[in-house]
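In response to the reviewer comment on reproducibility (Comment 2.3), we provide here a single inverse folding case reported in full, input and output, so that an independent group could reproduce the run without further information from us. The structure tokens appear first.
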């Protein structure tokens, strides 16, 4: 399986090996989208399964870790560079079997790679 940046944490994200993100709040560029239900660090295609709760009719989404911009262990928060609408428009995640399907994962990776880059907020 090929690894590329969409499936790897950015060096500036604050990711530390061995830190469990389950339960962390996931914040998009324009609002909170849910919490980390599971994280998958094996197979070279690292990703988070995010439970969106009522926000997206209770569905879960698969988000490649390459879109993670910051991890704050104290606040138990994961920030991602995409917007809520971009997450809603991502390929639908239905079952854990999809995390083992190279075709599905390739489609998810292609989708997130195609999103416009964001500029870091200036303070």
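Designed residues, in position order:
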């Amino acid at each position: 399986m090929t690894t590329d940046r969409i499936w790897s944490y950015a060096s500036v994200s604050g990711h530390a090996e061995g830190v469990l993100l389950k339960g962390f709040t996931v914040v998009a560029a324009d609002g909170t989208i849910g919490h980390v239900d599971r994280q998958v660090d094996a197979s070279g295609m690292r990703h988070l399964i995010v439970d969106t709760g009522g926000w997206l009719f209770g569905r879960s989404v698969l988000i490649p870790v390459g879109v993670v911009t910051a991890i704050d262990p104290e606040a138990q928060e994961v920030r991602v560079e995409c917007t809520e609408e971009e997450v809603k428009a991502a390929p639908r995640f239905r079952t854990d079997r999809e995390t083992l399907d190279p075709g599905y994962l390739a489609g998810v990776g292609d989708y997130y790679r195609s999103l416009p880059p964001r500029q870091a907020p200036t303070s």
